[in-house]
Design a protein that fits this description.
Layout lengths: L4 H12 L7 H15 L7 E6 L4 E6 L2 E7 L19 E9 L7 E4 L2 E6 L14 E10 L18 E4 L15 E3 L1 H10 L5 E5 L2
Parallel strand pairs: 1-10, 8-9
Antiparallel strand pairs: 1-2, 2-3, 4-7, 4-10, 5-6, 5-7, 7-8
Helix pairs in contact: 1-2
Amino acid sequence: MWISKKILSLFLFLSFCSFYEPTENDVLFFVEEYCKDVYPHRSINQLLFVAIKQQKIYLIRHGHMVTSYPISTSKYGVGNLIHSKKTPTGLHIIEHKIGKGVPSQGIIKGGVYTGEQIDLEHYPVTKKGDFVTSRLLWLKGLELGKNLGGNVDSYERRIYIHGTPEEGLIGKPSSHGCIRMTNHQVIELFNLAEKGLNVLILDV
């Protein structure tokens, strides 16, 4: 994949932004230029942008920042291989939205609310198990050989944006591959993000 020097410079700039908070304009400019450069045949005017080094997710519509939230990506790092427990990169879409009406502490297994609820942990400690709570946005990769098909398929890996009981760990990598959010924020995002919305995940 060919990337222009300008995009490479911006990519490096945002990567170094893990030491401080990039401005809203920094993020908007980078995403617009990156999408035009890397996906020239796609019209990407609305998307969720997941910045792994920043541990943040941004909702962008038509060049405007709608909102942003802290997240938690994989504690095992970045990668697209099945069974790696790493957070995949590249362009995705929201394939399914699951959990409408589920309580904020409700446990979802296999895409179904179990009827059980779990206590939230607000301190930075790990609970036993890898629970999905309140809402989930199930992602499907769009880049064949990178996050779609074979042993790198994000959908088959069940990569979600979802709520977690480990809210005290949000803001630092601690998941098993998915993108975790606090429960009230993932419910808010669930109501804002429609099925089919683009999701760009990058290690910046």
